[in-house]
Amino acid sequence: MTVFTDLIAGYRRFRQQGWATQRDRWATLAEGQSPRVMVIACSDSRTDPTTVFDTSPGEIFVVRNVANLVPPFEVGGGRHGVSAALEFAVTQLKVQEIVVMGHGMCGGVYAAMTKRFAEATPGEGGFIANWIGLLDEARDRITTDHGTGEDAIRALELETVKVSIANLRTFTFVRAAEDAGQLSLHGAWFSIKEGVLWVMGEDGAFAPAS
């Protein structure tokens, strides 16, 4: 799909095939949602979590942004879209699991690694620079150990998942739910090139999902 008319054509197919054949499901969803899982993913058009996880409408609560980042808890100073979605998922929907899903060839991670927008103003990359500044500390650690090549970029893509999970735990309501055994946090990384999902273990290492 490339233009709005293509989207409308897709909508017509959905009405004829998806909605029409699952009217009972859509009638149930019209009464409300009760997803058990929240997925925090990148806005990248190649990594739609509903496709990667093969889910149906109503099954996962999704937040997408540049580089699948979660900012640390803070109040004041602008809007807090990710924080609001997180608060809604945990305190209102009572999701039982949160998955942070990074991916290969992430443009946001690449920009963080190369400092591409470091001097940019808003409208020229400044908003991007401010957002991916959340990765500055992780980038500096990784470049010390791995340089700035492909291995370093892959390492930063994985580290981005860990940064977001660490930031999730700065929210008191996330920590409280996790400590009570009502919420679990997971990390994953999707290889666009190979079509393989890597899952983070308790030791922080990533391995292909079995």
UniProtKB/TrEMBL annotation:
Lineage of the organism: Bacteria, Pseudomonadati, Pseudomonadota, Alphaproteobacteria, Sphingomonadales
Cofactor section: Zn(2+)
Broad class of enzyme this protein falls into: lyase
Family designation: Belongs to the beta-class carbonic anhydrase family.
Role, per record: Reversible hydration of carbon dioxide.
Gene3D superfamilies per the UniProt record, alphabetical: Carbonic anhydrase
Protein name as it appears in the record: Carbonic anhydrase
EC code: 4.2.1.1
Catalytic activity: hydrogencarbonate + H(+) = CO2 + H2O
InterPro entries recorded: Beta_CA_cladeB, Carbonic_anhydrase, Carbonic_anhydrase_CS, Carbonic_anhydrase_sf
Keyword annotations: Lyase, Metal-binding, Zinc
Pfam families: Pro_CA (PF00484)
PANTHER family assigned: CARBONIC ANHYDRASE (PTHR11002)
